[in-house]
């Protein structure tokens, strides 16, 4: 967990403690507050929230404000929570109702973006996925995260977002590591169809598709996947969370990483050749 994120949790905890100690009817102990808040609340939970060892939910904050007799403080507490959650969005919390909500959040950013810059190191980017390929990625991720399955709704949301590929004025600068063409997170037949679909995207006037071959000399190693929305926001995917980064220096760093990686990428006919090589590896001649 990042230092900035933990510091924000601790600051929120201090604010919660202050509200408990300043309750209008007199200061409350952790035990008294837990008893007042009812089922699901314990002295241990109160302590974890106040010491920044647990992230509060919006429902927790509402209960806390009401329980300490200061309901008018809820909006302030919620604003604090949103302030740091907008930067680190844990998968556990995002996937509490399934993958569609995550797709809907991404769609909001896509719709307000003219230039989307994408780096993928292990998967075909969502903007270029077939429904079958997307279905397998959602199912694998749901298995790992033990989250509710809403696969078909999530697939529909992702495929609908691909309409942006055909909208005038949009630009998708997409680059991937050749390993993404070989990752068998789906049956070989599904990946074969996905690679055929990927090759077809090279002719779209909204898409610049680059691939870094295994044989390319690299100036920097292929790290985590990330998406840059215009020059205002970067979303980086990790195992525990998505990082939403909006400070100008960090956005500039990710764009610099992308530009450095691009020096090793191939486009056009050369990219077709890399894709065709991956297709042949899946279906070697007998």
TrEMBL record:
* MF term (GO), any: DNA binding
InterPro entries from the xrefs?
Answer: Cro/C1-type_HTH, DUF5753, Lambda_DNA-bd_dom_sf
Q: What is this protein called?
A: Transcriptional regulator
Q: Coiled-coil segments, which residues?
A: none
Q: Which residues form the DUF5753 domain?
A: 103-277
- Give one Pfam hit by family name: HTH_31
What species does this protein belong to? Streptomyces phaeoluteigriseus
